[in-house]
Design goal:
This protein has 608 residues and is of the alpha+beta class. 52% of the residues lie in helices and 19% in strands. It has a five-stranded antiparallel β-sheet. A hairpin with a 4-residue loop joins strand 4 and strand 5. Helix 1 packs antiparallel against helix 7, helix 11 runs antiparallel to helix 12 and helix 11 packs parallel to helix 13. Its main location: membrane. GO terms for molecular function: kinase activity. This is Sensor histidine kinase.
Length: 608
Protein backbone atom coordinates (compact mmCIF):
# COMPACT_ATOMS: atom_id res chain seq x y z
CA UNK A 1 0.00 0.00 0.00
CA UNK A 2 1.45 3.37 -0.99
CA UNK A 3 1.82 6.35 1.33
CA UNK A 4 -1.18 8.18 -0.08
CA UNK A 5 -3.44 5.22 0.56
CA UNK A 6 -2.00 4.76 4.04
CA UNK A 7 -2.81 8.36 4.98
CA UNK A 8 -6.27 8.10 3.50
CA UNK A 9 -6.85 4.77 5.27
CA UNK A 10 -5.71 6.28 8.58
CA UNK A 11 -8.19 9.14 8.17
CA UNK A 12 -11.01 6.72 7.35
CA UNK A 13 -10.19 4.28 10.18
CA UNK A 14 -9.53 6.88 12.88
CA UNK A 15 -12.20 9.46 12.01
CA UNK A 16 -14.78 8.22 9.53
CA UNK A 17 -15.26 4.72 10.98
CA UNK A 18 -15.76 5.94 14.60
CA UNK A 19 -18.15 8.58 13.29
CA UNK A 20 -20.12 5.92 11.41
CA UNK A 21 -20.19 3.66 14.48
CA UNK A 22 -21.46 6.56 16.59
CA UNK A 23 -24.15 7.32 14.02
CA UNK A 24 -25.27 3.67 13.79
CA UNK A 25 -25.43 3.31 17.59
CA UNK A 26 -27.39 6.57 17.88
CA UNK A 27 -29.80 5.43 15.16
CA UNK A 28 -30.37 2.07 16.87
CA UNK A 29 -30.93 3.68 20.27
CA UNK A 30 -33.31 6.26 18.77
CA UNK A 31 -35.25 3.59 16.90
CA UNK A 32 -35.59 1.50 20.04
CA UNK A 33 -36.72 4.52 22.02
CA UNK A 34 -39.33 5.44 19.40
CA UNK A 35 -40.60 1.86 19.29
CA UNK A 36 -40.86 1.62 23.09
CA UNK A 37 -42.61 5.01 23.39
CA UNK A 38 -45.04 4.13 20.63
CA UNK A 39 -45.76 0.76 22.28
CA UNK A 40 -46.77 2.43 25.56
CA UNK A 41 -49.02 4.95 23.82
CA UNK A 42 -50.63 2.26 21.69
CA UNK A 43 -51.37 0.07 24.72
CA UNK A 44 -53.45 2.85 26.30
CA UNK A 45 -55.27 3.49 23.03
CA UNK A 46 -56.05 -0.20 22.41
CA UNK A 47 -57.37 -0.54 25.97
CA UNK A 48 -59.63 2.47 25.33
CA UNK A 49 -60.89 0.97 22.07
CA UNK A 50 -61.46 -2.36 23.79
CA UNK A 51 -63.43 -0.69 26.59
CA UNK A 52 -65.54 1.27 24.09
CA UNK A 53 -66.41 -1.86 22.13
CA UNK A 54 -67.32 -3.63 25.37
CA UNK A 55 -69.56 -0.71 26.33
CA UNK A 56 -71.50 -0.99 23.05
CA UNK A 57 -71.97 -4.72 23.53
CA UNK A 58 -72.96 -4.35 27.18
CA UNK A 59 -75.65 -1.83 26.25
CA UNK A 60 -77.20 -4.45 23.98
CA UNK A 61 -76.85 -6.98 26.80
CA UNK A 62 -78.94 -4.63 28.97
CA UNK A 63 -81.59 -4.41 26.26
CA UNK A 64 -82.00 -8.18 26.04
CA UNK A 65 -81.81 -8.46 29.85
CA UNK A 66 -84.86 -6.15 29.99
CA UNK A 67 -86.69 -8.37 27.52
CA UNK A 68 -86.00 -11.45 29.61
CA UNK A 69 -87.01 -9.67 32.84
CA UNK A 70 -90.39 -8.64 31.39
CA UNK A 71 -91.05 -12.22 30.19
CA UNK A 72 -91.50 -11.00 26.62
CA UNK A 73 -89.40 -13.87 25.23
CA UNK A 74 -91.12 -16.38 27.54
CA UNK A 75 -94.59 -15.47 26.19
CA UNK A 76 -93.32 -15.47 22.60
CA UNK A 77 -91.85 -18.93 23.00
CA UNK A 78 -94.95 -20.29 24.77
CA UNK A 79 -96.95 -20.24 21.54
CA UNK A 80 -95.82 -22.69 18.83
CA UNK A 81 -97.41 -20.63 16.03
CA UNK A 82 -98.96 -17.36 17.20
CA UNK A 83 -100.28 -16.38 13.78
CA UNK A 84 -102.67 -19.33 13.74
CA UNK A 85 -104.02 -19.02 17.29
CA UNK A 86 -107.35 -17.46 18.28
CA UNK A 87 -107.21 -13.95 19.64
CA UNK A 88 -107.93 -14.98 23.22
CA UNK A 89 -106.73 -13.09 26.22
CA UNK A 90 -103.45 -14.96 26.39
CA UNK A 91 -102.75 -14.34 22.72
CA UNK A 92 -103.59 -10.67 23.01
CA UNK A 93 -101.23 -10.42 25.98
CA UNK A 94 -98.51 -12.13 23.93
CA UNK A 95 -98.94 -9.82 20.99
CA UNK A 96 -98.88 -6.82 23.32
CA UNK A 97 -95.58 -8.03 24.90
CA UNK A 98 -94.06 -8.60 21.48
CA UNK A 99 -95.05 -5.12 20.45
CA UNK A 100 -93.50 -3.71 23.61
CA UNK A 101 -90.25 -5.59 22.89
CA UNK A 102 -90.28 -4.43 19.29
CA UNK A 103 -90.68 -0.87 20.51
CA UNK A 104 -87.76 -1.43 22.85
CA UNK A 105 -85.61 -2.72 19.97
CA UNK A 106 -86.69 0.10 17.67
CA UNK A 107 -85.16 2.54 20.13
CA UNK A 108 -81.79 1.01 19.10
CA UNK A 109 -81.51 1.59 15.34
CA UNK A 110 -78.28 -0.43 15.16
CA UNK A 111 -80.26 -3.67 15.63
CA UNK A 112 -80.51 -5.47 12.29
CA UNK A 113 -82.35 -8.71 13.04
CA UNK A 114 -83.72 -10.73 15.99
CA UNK A 115 -85.37 -14.13 16.37
CA UNK A 116 -85.94 -16.88 18.96
CA UNK A 117 -85.26 -20.62 18.86
CA UNK A 118 -87.85 -22.73 20.70
CA UNK A 119 -86.11 -25.70 22.30
CA UNK A 120 -88.76 -27.85 20.59
CA UNK A 121 -87.51 -26.69 17.19
CA UNK A 122 -89.76 -23.74 16.34
CA UNK A 123 -88.35 -20.35 15.17
CA UNK A 124 -90.09 -17.22 16.46
CA UNK A 125 -89.22 -14.16 14.37
CA UNK A 126 -89.09 -10.81 16.14
CA UNK A 127 -87.68 -8.83 13.21
CA UNK A 128 -87.81 -9.95 9.64
CA UNK A 129 -84.78 -9.72 7.38
CA UNK A 130 -84.72 -9.86 3.59
CA UNK A 131 -82.52 -12.38 1.78
CA UNK A 132 -81.67 -14.17 5.00
CA UNK A 133 -82.70 -17.69 5.84
CA UNK A 134 -82.55 -18.71 9.48
CA UNK A 135 -80.58 -21.89 10.18
CA UNK A 136 -82.93 -24.71 11.23
CA UNK A 137 -82.80 -25.49 14.90
CA UNK A 138 -81.78 -29.11 14.29
CA UNK A 139 -78.72 -27.90 12.34
CA UNK A 140 -77.96 -25.32 14.99
CA UNK A 141 -77.92 -28.02 17.69
CA UNK A 142 -75.12 -29.78 15.80
CA UNK A 143 -72.86 -26.72 16.02
CA UNK A 144 -70.23 -26.42 18.81
CA UNK A 145 -71.67 -22.93 19.36
CA UNK A 146 -74.93 -24.46 20.64
CA UNK A 147 -73.16 -26.35 23.42
CA UNK A 148 -71.13 -23.25 24.31
CA UNK A 149 -74.33 -21.17 24.64
CA UNK A 150 -75.85 -23.79 26.93
CA UNK A 151 -72.70 -23.87 29.08
CA UNK A 152 -72.83 -20.06 29.47
CA UNK A 153 -76.25 -20.58 31.15
CA UNK A 154 -77.77 -17.27 30.07
CA UNK A 155 -74.63 -15.15 29.77
CA UNK A 156 -74.61 -13.50 26.32
CA UNK A 157 -72.27 -14.92 23.72
CA UNK A 158 -71.13 -12.43 21.07
CA UNK A 159 -70.13 -13.45 17.54
CA UNK A 160 -68.22 -11.08 15.26
CA UNK A 161 -68.58 -10.93 11.47
CA UNK A 162 -67.12 -13.88 9.50
CA UNK A 163 -66.91 -16.18 12.54
CA UNK A 164 -70.13 -18.17 11.86
CA UNK A 165 -71.43 -16.99 8.45
CA UNK A 166 -73.71 -20.05 8.17
CA UNK A 167 -75.63 -18.80 11.23
CA UNK A 168 -75.31 -15.01 11.02
CA UNK A 169 -75.09 -14.45 7.26
CA UNK A 170 -72.44 -12.59 5.29
CA UNK A 171 -73.26 -9.02 6.37
CA UNK A 172 -70.75 -7.26 8.69
CA UNK A 173 -72.91 -7.56 11.82
CA UNK A 174 -72.19 -8.47 15.43
CA UNK A 175 -74.49 -11.16 16.78
CA UNK A 176 -75.59 -11.84 20.36
CA UNK A 177 -76.71 -15.37 21.25
CA UNK A 178 -77.97 -16.19 24.72
CA UNK A 179 -80.04 -18.76 26.53
CA UNK A 180 -83.57 -17.62 27.62
CA UNK A 181 -84.86 -18.95 30.97
CA UNK A 182 -88.24 -18.88 32.62
CA UNK A 183 -87.61 -16.64 35.66
CA UNK A 184 -89.92 -18.37 38.10
CA UNK A 185 -88.17 -21.74 38.07
CA UNK A 186 -85.12 -21.03 35.82
CA UNK A 187 -85.98 -23.55 33.18
CA UNK A 188 -84.38 -23.27 29.73
CA UNK A 189 -87.11 -22.31 27.26
CA UNK A 190 -85.26 -20.98 24.18
CA UNK A 191 -82.32 -19.22 22.57
CA UNK A 192 -82.32 -15.55 21.55
CA UNK A 193 -80.35 -14.33 18.51
CA UNK A 194 -79.94 -10.56 18.04
CA UNK A 195 -77.81 -8.95 15.30
CA UNK A 196 -76.56 -5.37 15.48
CA UNK A 197 -74.96 -3.34 12.75
CA UNK A 198 -71.35 -2.20 13.19
CA UNK A 199 -72.14 1.52 13.16
CA UNK A 200 -70.99 2.12 16.72
CA UNK A 201 -67.90 -0.07 16.20
CA UNK A 202 -66.92 1.91 13.10
CA UNK A 203 -67.36 5.14 15.03
CA UNK A 204 -65.00 3.87 17.75
CA UNK A 205 -62.23 2.91 15.29
CA UNK A 206 -62.69 6.12 13.31
CA UNK A 207 -62.41 8.48 16.26
CA UNK A 208 -59.61 6.80 18.23
CA UNK A 209 -55.96 6.51 17.20
CA UNK A 210 -52.65 6.10 19.12
CA UNK A 211 -51.49 9.60 18.21
CA UNK A 212 -53.14 12.34 16.24
CA UNK A 213 -50.24 12.75 13.77
CA UNK A 214 -50.00 9.08 12.79
CA UNK A 215 -52.26 8.87 9.78
CA UNK A 216 -50.83 5.52 8.60
CA UNK A 217 -52.14 3.50 11.56
CA UNK A 218 -54.51 0.66 10.68
CA UNK A 219 -56.84 -1.00 13.23
CA UNK A 220 -58.19 -4.53 13.06
CA UNK A 221 -60.36 -6.79 15.16
CA UNK A 222 -58.96 -10.35 15.18
CA UNK A 223 -60.24 -13.40 17.04
CA UNK A 224 -58.03 -15.80 18.97
CA UNK A 225 -57.75 -18.07 15.92
CA UNK A 226 -56.09 -15.29 13.89
CA UNK A 227 -59.14 -14.52 11.67
CA UNK A 228 -59.57 -10.83 10.81
CA UNK A 229 -63.15 -10.04 11.88
CA UNK A 230 -63.29 -6.33 11.22
CA UNK A 231 -61.24 -3.97 9.07
CA UNK A 232 -62.38 -0.34 8.69
CA UNK A 233 -60.87 -0.34 5.20
CA UNK A 234 -62.86 -3.47 4.22
CA UNK A 235 -59.79 -5.03 2.52
CA UNK A 236 -58.69 -7.71 4.99
CA UNK A 237 -61.98 -8.89 6.52
CA UNK A 238 -62.38 -12.66 6.52
CA UNK A 239 -58.67 -13.34 5.90
CA UNK A 240 -56.24 -15.00 8.30
CA UNK A 241 -53.77 -12.47 9.66
CA UNK A 242 -50.93 -14.88 8.88
CA UNK A 243 -51.50 -14.20 5.16
CA UNK A 244 -50.38 -10.57 5.58
CA UNK A 245 -48.03 -10.80 8.58
CA UNK A 246 -44.80 -12.80 8.55
CA UNK A 247 -44.41 -13.35 12.29
CA UNK A 248 -46.44 -16.11 13.95
CA UNK A 249 -48.43 -14.74 16.90
CA UNK A 250 -50.20 -16.47 19.76
CA UNK A 251 -53.36 -14.51 20.57
CA UNK A 252 -55.22 -14.34 23.88
CA UNK A 253 -52.29 -13.31 26.11
CA UNK A 254 -52.78 -9.70 27.20
CA UNK A 255 -50.77 -6.98 25.43
CA UNK A 256 -47.86 -7.52 23.04
CA UNK A 257 -46.01 -5.31 20.57
CA UNK A 258 -43.30 -6.17 18.02
CA UNK A 259 -41.79 -5.15 14.69
CA UNK A 260 -42.49 -7.26 11.61
CA UNK A 261 -43.50 -7.08 7.96
CA UNK A 262 -47.19 -6.43 7.42
CA UNK A 263 -48.45 -6.37 3.83
CA UNK A 264 -44.81 -6.36 2.66
CA UNK A 265 -44.05 -3.21 4.68
CA UNK A 266 -42.04 -3.04 7.88
CA UNK A 267 -44.48 -2.07 10.62
CA UNK A 268 -45.06 -2.01 14.37
CA UNK A 269 -47.86 -4.43 15.29
CA UNK A 270 -49.54 -4.01 18.70
CA UNK A 271 -52.14 -6.50 20.02
CA UNK A 272 -54.45 -6.21 23.03
CA UNK A 273 -56.68 -9.08 24.09
CA UNK A 274 -60.18 -7.95 25.11
CA UNK A 275 -61.43 -9.10 28.49
CA UNK A 276 -64.54 -11.33 28.49
CA UNK A 277 -64.32 -11.77 24.70
CA UNK A 278 -62.23 -14.02 22.44
CA UNK A 279 -61.22 -11.02 20.35
CA UNK A 280 -58.08 -8.92 19.98
CA UNK A 281 -57.74 -5.28 18.98
CA UNK A 282 -54.75 -4.90 16.63
CA UNK A 283 -52.97 -1.67 15.63
CA UNK A 284 -50.58 -1.68 12.67
CA UNK A 285 -48.40 1.39 12.10
CA UNK A 286 -45.87 1.83 9.32
CA UNK A 287 -42.35 2.04 10.69
CA UNK A 288 -41.49 4.63 8.05
CA UNK A 289 -44.06 7.05 9.49
CA UNK A 290 -42.76 6.51 13.03
CA UNK A 291 -39.10 6.93 12.16
CA UNK A 292 -39.35 10.17 10.16
CA UNK A 293 -37.29 12.12 12.70
CA UNK A 294 -34.71 9.35 12.87
CA UNK A 295 -34.47 9.28 9.08
CA UNK A 296 -33.89 13.04 9.05
CA UNK A 297 -31.10 12.55 11.57
CA UNK A 298 -29.64 9.76 9.43
CA UNK A 299 -29.73 11.97 6.34
CA UNK A 300 -27.90 14.76 8.15
CA UNK A 301 -25.34 12.28 9.45
CA UNK A 302 -24.72 10.83 5.98
CA UNK A 303 -24.32 14.34 4.57
CA UNK A 304 -21.76 15.29 7.24
CA UNK A 305 -19.88 12.03 6.68
CA UNK A 306 -19.75 12.63 2.94
CA UNK A 307 -18.39 16.13 3.54
CA UNK A 308 -15.67 14.67 5.77
CA UNK A 309 -14.77 12.15 3.08
CA UNK A 310 -14.65 14.91 0.49
CA UNK A 311 -12.33 16.93 2.71
CA UNK A 312 -10.09 13.89 3.19
CA UNK A 313 -9.95 13.24 -0.56
CA UNK A 314 -9.13 16.91 -1.22
CA UNK A 315 -6.32 16.84 1.35
CA UNK A 316 -5.05 13.58 -0.10
CA UNK A 317 -4.97 14.97 -3.63
CA UNK A 318 -3.67 18.49 -2.97
CA UNK A 319 -1.10 18.08 -0.19
CA UNK A 320 0.08 14.52 -0.67
CA UNK A 321 -0.04 14.28 -4.44
CA UNK A 322 3.47 15.54 -5.11
CA UNK A 323 5.16 13.47 -2.40
CA UNK A 324 3.33 10.21 -2.98
CA UNK A 325 3.29 10.78 -6.74
CA UNK A 326 7.08 11.06 -6.91
CA UNK A 327 7.51 8.01 -4.71
CA UNK A 328 5.00 6.13 -6.85
CA UNK A 329 6.98 6.95 -10.01
CA UNK A 330 10.15 5.56 -8.43
CA UNK A 331 8.26 2.42 -7.35
CA UNK A 332 6.96 1.88 -10.88
CA UNK A 333 10.48 2.23 -12.30
CA UNK A 334 11.75 -0.21 -9.68
CA UNK A 335 9.20 -2.75 -10.89
CA UNK A 336 10.47 -2.26 -14.43
CA UNK A 337 13.96 -3.00 -13.15
CA UNK A 338 12.59 -6.14 -11.48
CA UNK A 339 11.22 -7.14 -14.88
CA UNK A 340 14.68 -6.84 -16.48
CA UNK A 341 14.63 -3.31 -17.91
CA UNK A 342 17.90 -1.71 -16.75
CA UNK A 343 17.72 1.34 -19.04
CA UNK A 344 15.08 3.26 -17.04
CA UNK A 345 15.89 6.71 -15.61
CA UNK A 346 13.76 8.75 -13.22
CA UNK A 347 13.47 12.47 -13.97
CA UNK A 348 14.83 14.27 -10.91
CA UNK A 349 13.46 17.73 -10.32
CA UNK A 350 13.76 20.12 -7.46
CA UNK A 351 16.31 20.31 -4.67
CA UNK A 352 14.59 18.41 -1.86
CA UNK A 353 14.89 14.85 -0.57
CA UNK A 354 12.86 13.50 -3.53
CA UNK A 355 15.59 14.80 -5.87
CA UNK A 356 18.25 12.95 -3.85
CA UNK A 357 16.14 9.78 -3.87
CA UNK A 358 15.63 9.90 -7.65
CA UNK A 359 19.34 10.58 -8.32
CA UNK A 360 20.36 7.68 -6.07
CA UNK A 361 17.93 5.39 -7.88
CA UNK A 362 19.34 6.35 -11.28
CA UNK A 363 22.93 5.73 -10.12
CA UNK A 364 21.97 2.36 -8.66
CA UNK A 365 20.19 1.24 -11.86
CA UNK A 366 23.26 2.29 -13.91
CA UNK A 367 25.57 0.17 -11.77
CA UNK A 368 23.22 -2.79 -11.93
CA UNK A 369 22.99 -2.45 -15.72
CA UNK A 370 26.80 -2.51 -16.05
CA UNK A 371 27.10 -5.56 -13.80
CA UNK A 372 24.33 -7.36 -15.65
CA UNK A 373 26.00 -6.81 -19.05
CA UNK A 374 29.26 -8.11 -17.64
CA UNK A 375 27.59 -11.23 -16.21
CA UNK A 376 25.70 -11.81 -19.46
CA UNK A 377 28.93 -11.68 -21.48
CA UNK A 378 30.67 -14.07 -19.12
CA UNK A 379 27.68 -16.46 -19.17
CA UNK A 380 27.65 -16.47 -22.97
CA UNK A 381 31.33 -17.31 -23.09
CA UNK A 382 30.80 -20.08 -20.56
CA UNK A 383 27.91 -21.53 -22.56
CA UNK A 384 29.94 -21.56 -25.75
CA UNK A 385 32.80 -23.29 -23.94
CA UNK A 386 30.41 -25.97 -22.61
CA UNK A 387 29.04 -26.49 -26.11
CA UNK A 388 32.50 -26.98 -27.58
CA UNK A 389 33.38 -29.46 -24.86
CA UNK A 390 30.23 -31.49 -25.55
CA UNK A 391 30.93 -31.57 -29.27
CA UNK A 392 34.47 -32.69 -28.53
CA UNK A 393 32.99 -35.58 -26.53
CA UNK A 394 31.05 -36.80 -29.58
CA UNK A 395 33.75 -36.57 -32.26
CA UNK A 396 36.47 -38.74 -30.62
CA UNK A 397 33.82 -41.20 -29.53
CA UNK A 398 32.55 -41.71 -33.08
CA UNK A 399 35.97 -41.65 -34.75
CA UNK A 400 37.26 -44.29 -32.39
CA UNK A 401 34.45 -46.70 -33.29
CA UNK A 402 34.69 -45.98 -37.03
CA UNK A 403 38.48 -46.42 -37.24
CA UNK A 404 38.17 -49.61 -35.29
CA UNK A 405 35.71 -50.90 -37.91
CA UNK A 406 38.02 -49.86 -40.81
CA UNK A 407 40.93 -51.59 -39.11
CA UNK A 408 38.95 -54.80 -38.85
CA UNK A 409 38.03 -54.65 -42.57
CA UNK A 410 41.66 -53.93 -43.53
CA UNK A 411 42.79 -56.99 -41.60
CA UNK A 412 40.17 -58.99 -43.50
CA UNK A 413 41.56 -57.64 -46.85
CA UNK A 414 38.19 -56.03 -47.72
CA UNK A 415 39.64 -53.30 -49.92
CA UNK A 416 36.40 -52.27 -51.60
CA UNK A 417 34.61 -52.03 -48.29
CA UNK A 418 37.51 -50.11 -46.80
CA UNK A 419 37.35 -47.65 -49.71
CA UNK A 420 33.62 -47.23 -49.30
CA UNK A 421 33.92 -46.74 -45.57
CA UNK A 422 36.68 -44.18 -46.01
CA UNK A 423 34.45 -42.32 -48.47
CA UNK A 424 31.59 -42.36 -45.99
CA UNK A 425 33.90 -41.28 -43.20
CA UNK A 426 35.04 -38.37 -45.35
CA UNK A 427 31.43 -37.22 -45.72
CA UNK A 428 30.97 -37.42 -41.96
CA UNK A 429 34.13 -35.46 -41.21
CA UNK A 430 33.19 -32.82 -43.77
CA UNK A 431 30.03 -32.05 -41.84
CA UNK A 432 31.61 -32.43 -38.41
CA UNK A 433 34.35 -29.88 -39.01
CA UNK A 434 31.92 -27.13 -40.09
CA UNK A 435 31.91 -24.10 -37.82
CA UNK A 436 28.11 -23.85 -37.91
CA UNK A 437 26.21 -25.07 -34.87
CA UNK A 438 23.01 -25.69 -36.85
CA UNK A 439 22.74 -27.33 -40.25
CA UNK A 440 19.77 -28.23 -42.49
CA UNK A 441 18.05 -31.52 -41.70
CA UNK A 442 18.95 -33.02 -45.11
CA UNK A 443 22.68 -32.60 -44.32
CA UNK A 444 22.16 -34.21 -40.91
CA UNK A 445 20.33 -37.11 -42.64
CA UNK A 446 23.20 -37.48 -45.17
CA UNK A 447 25.65 -37.59 -42.27
CA UNK A 448 23.46 -40.23 -40.58
CA UNK A 449 23.15 -42.30 -43.75
CA UNK A 450 26.96 -42.34 -44.15
CA UNK A 451 27.31 -43.49 -40.57
CA UNK A 452 24.70 -46.24 -40.98
CA UNK A 453 26.33 -47.52 -44.14
CA UNK A 454 29.68 -47.69 -42.35
CA UNK A 455 28.06 -49.66 -39.55
CA UNK A 456 26.35 -52.04 -41.99
CA UNK A 457 29.77 -52.74 -43.56
CA UNK A 458 31.00 -53.62 -40.13
CA UNK A 459 27.96 -55.49 -38.77
CA UNK A 460 26.66 -57.35 -41.80
CA UNK A 461 23.09 -58.64 -41.41
CA UNK A 462 22.93 -57.29 -37.84
CA UNK A 463 20.32 -54.62 -38.65
CA UNK A 464 18.59 -52.67 -41.35
CA UNK A 465 17.29 -49.14 -41.23
CA UNK A 466 14.58 -46.84 -42.63
CA UNK A 467 14.74 -43.04 -42.97
CA UNK A 468 11.23 -41.55 -43.12
CA UNK A 469 11.83 -37.81 -43.69
CA UNK A 470 9.07 -35.69 -45.36
CA UNK A 471 10.57 -33.50 -48.13
CA UNK A 472 8.89 -30.35 -46.78
CA UNK A 473 10.82 -30.75 -43.51
CA UNK A 474 14.22 -31.37 -45.04
CA UNK A 475 15.29 -27.72 -44.70
CA UNK A 476 14.51 -27.48 -41.00
CA UNK A 477 17.52 -26.42 -38.94
CA UNK A 478 18.89 -28.84 -36.34
CA UNK A 479 22.07 -29.06 -34.28
CA UNK A 480 24.66 -31.06 -36.16
CA UNK A 481 25.57 -34.49 -34.82
CA UNK A 482 22.16 -34.89 -33.21
CA UNK A 483 20.88 -38.16 -34.75
CA UNK A 484 24.16 -40.04 -35.15
CA UNK A 485 24.87 -40.51 -31.39
CA UNK A 486 21.29 -41.74 -30.86
CA UNK A 487 21.55 -44.30 -33.69
CA UNK A 488 25.00 -45.32 -32.45
CA UNK A 489 23.45 -46.08 -29.05
CA UNK A 490 20.92 -48.39 -30.77
CA UNK A 491 23.59 -50.34 -32.64
CA UNK A 492 26.18 -50.61 -29.87
CA UNK A 493 23.81 -51.39 -27.02
CA UNK A 494 20.29 -52.00 -28.30
CA UNK A 495 21.28 -54.84 -30.63
CA UNK A 496 23.86 -56.35 -28.30
CA UNK A 497 23.35 -60.12 -28.14
CA UNK A 498 20.03 -60.25 -30.02
CA UNK A 499 19.16 -63.43 -31.97
CA UNK A 500 17.10 -61.62 -34.60
CA UNK A 501 17.72 -58.86 -37.10
CA UNK A 502 17.55 -55.39 -35.68
CA UNK A 503 15.65 -52.53 -37.26
CA UNK A 504 16.15 -48.77 -36.88
CA UNK A 505 13.41 -46.36 -37.95
CA UNK A 506 14.14 -42.62 -38.10
CA UNK A 507 11.23 -40.20 -38.64
CA UNK A 508 10.26 -36.59 -37.98
CA UNK A 509 7.17 -34.35 -37.79
CA UNK A 510 5.91 -31.05 -36.36
CA UNK A 511 3.37 -30.58 -33.57
CA UNK A 512 2.12 -27.21 -32.27
CA UNK A 513 5.38 -25.29 -32.51
CA UNK A 514 7.64 -28.26 -31.84
CA UNK A 515 9.88 -30.12 -34.32
CA UNK A 516 10.25 -33.77 -33.29
CA UNK A 517 12.91 -36.25 -34.46
CA UNK A 518 12.32 -39.88 -33.45
CA UNK A 519 14.71 -42.85 -33.42
CA UNK A 520 13.07 -46.24 -32.80
CA UNK A 521 14.66 -49.69 -32.57
CA UNK A 522 13.53 -53.21 -31.75
CA UNK A 523 16.50 -54.03 -29.56
CA UNK A 524 16.83 -55.41 -26.06
CA UNK A 525 15.52 -52.20 -24.47
CA UNK A 526 16.38 -50.85 -21.03
CA UNK A 527 15.24 -51.51 -17.49
CA UNK A 528 13.78 -48.72 -15.28
CA UNK A 529 17.10 -48.55 -13.42
CA UNK A 530 18.97 -47.95 -16.70
CA UNK A 531 16.43 -45.32 -17.80
CA UNK A 532 17.00 -43.34 -14.62
CA UNK A 533 20.65 -42.90 -15.64
CA UNK A 534 19.49 -40.61 -18.48
CA UNK A 535 17.60 -38.17 -16.24
CA UNK A 536 19.37 -34.81 -16.48
CA UNK A 537 20.55 -33.40 -13.13
CA UNK A 538 22.34 -30.11 -12.61
CA UNK A 539 24.52 -31.61 -9.90
CA UNK A 540 25.61 -34.70 -11.84
CA UNK A 541 29.27 -33.80 -11.45
CA UNK A 542 28.88 -33.34 -7.70
CA UNK A 543 27.16 -36.72 -7.41
CA UNK A 544 29.84 -38.43 -9.50
CA UNK A 545 32.61 -36.91 -7.36
CA UNK A 546 30.91 -38.33 -4.27
CA UNK A 547 30.77 -41.85 -5.71
CA UNK A 548 34.49 -42.51 -6.27
CA UNK A 549 34.23 -45.80 -4.40
CA UNK A 550 31.67 -47.11 -6.94
CA UNK A 551 33.45 -45.79 -10.07
CA UNK A 552 34.55 -49.16 -11.39
CA UNK A 553 31.07 -50.63 -10.98
CA UNK A 554 29.29 -47.83 -12.94
CA UNK A 555 31.89 -47.06 -15.63
CA UNK A 556 30.25 -49.16 -18.33
CA UNK A 557 26.82 -47.56 -17.66
CA UNK A 558 28.32 -44.04 -17.81
CA UNK A 559 30.04 -44.82 -21.14
CA UNK A 560 26.83 -46.32 -22.46
CA UNK A 561 24.89 -43.09 -22.00
CA UNK A 562 27.68 -40.69 -22.98
CA UNK A 563 26.47 -39.98 -26.54
CA UNK A 564 22.78 -39.69 -25.57
CA UNK A 565 23.60 -37.46 -22.58
CA UNK A 566 25.77 -35.21 -24.75
CA UNK A 567 22.95 -34.70 -27.28
CA UNK A 568 20.50 -33.88 -24.47
CA UNK A 569 22.91 -31.35 -22.91
CA UNK A 570 23.60 -29.63 -26.25
CA UNK A 571 19.86 -29.22 -26.97
CA UNK A 572 19.23 -27.84 -23.50
CA UNK A 573 22.10 -25.36 -23.67
CA UNK A 574 21.25 -24.21 -27.19
CA UNK A 575 17.42 -24.06 -27.06
CA UNK A 576 16.57 -23.89 -23.37
CA UNK A 577 15.30 -26.19 -20.63
CA UNK A 578 11.89 -26.78 -22.28
CA UNK A 579 13.49 -28.90 -25.04
CA UNK A 580 15.58 -32.09 -25.01
CA UNK A 581 15.28 -35.89 -25.24
CA UNK A 582 12.40 -38.11 -24.14
CA UNK A 583 13.22 -41.85 -23.88
CA UNK A 584 10.65 -44.64 -23.68
CA UNK A 585 11.91 -48.21 -23.29
CA UNK A 586 11.32 -51.56 -21.61
CA UNK A 587 13.22 -54.81 -21.60
CA UNK A 588 12.96 -57.00 -24.76
CA UNK A 589 10.60 -54.56 -26.54
CA UNK A 590 12.95 -51.90 -27.89
CA UNK A 591 13.56 -48.21 -27.33
CA UNK A 592 12.03 -44.97 -28.65
CA UNK A 593 13.98 -41.71 -28.36
CA UNK A 594 12.25 -38.45 -29.27
CA UNK A 595 14.33 -35.34 -29.82
CA UNK A 596 12.10 -32.28 -29.23
CA UNK A 597 13.26 -29.01 -30.84
CA UNK A 598 11.58 -25.63 -31.39
CA UNK A 599 9.89 -25.15 -34.78
CA UNK A 600 11.18 -21.78 -35.98
CA UNK A 601 8.80 -21.61 -38.96
CA UNK A 602 5.77 -22.14 -36.70
CA UNK A 603 6.82 -19.17 -34.52
CA UNK A 604 7.24 -16.98 -37.59
CA UNK A 605 3.72 -17.80 -38.78
CA UNK A 606 2.23 -16.81 -35.42
CA UNK A 607 4.09 -13.49 -35.24
CA UNK A 608 1.86 -10.59 -36.38
Amino acid sequence: MNLRNKLFTAFVVLIIVPLCILGVVTYIVSSHSIEEKYSRQTEYSLKSISYSIGTVLRQMDNVTDNGIATSVFHMALAAKDPSKQDLNEEQLSLNNSQRNFRNLLYNHPAISYAFLYNLHGAVVSVFTKENFKTMPFEDFKKQPLYREVLELNGVPKWIAPHEYPELTGTEPVFTQIRLVKELSYFKNIGILVVQIKNWDIESIFRNLSPTQNMQSTQFLLVNDDGLILYDPNKTLEGKPISSVMKKTVRFGSGYQSFKTDFNDEKSIVSIYHMEDYSWNVVAVTSWASLSKETLVFAQWFIGITLLCLLAAITFNMVFMRRITGSIGVIVRFMRKVEGGDFNVQVEDRGKDELHILAKGFNDLVGQINSLFKQIKTEQKQKTQAELRVLQAQIKPHFLFNTLESINVLAIQNEGVKVSEMVHRLGNILRISIQDKEEIPLDQEIEHLRSYLEIQKFRFDDLFDYELDIPPELSRRSVLKLTLQPLVENCIQHGFEGIAYKGHIHVSCWTDRGRFILQVQDNGIGMSPEQLRKFVYMKNDKEEESGRNGDQDRHINEERRGLGVRSVADRIRIHYGEYYGLFICSSLLTGTIIQCVLPDAEWREKDDP
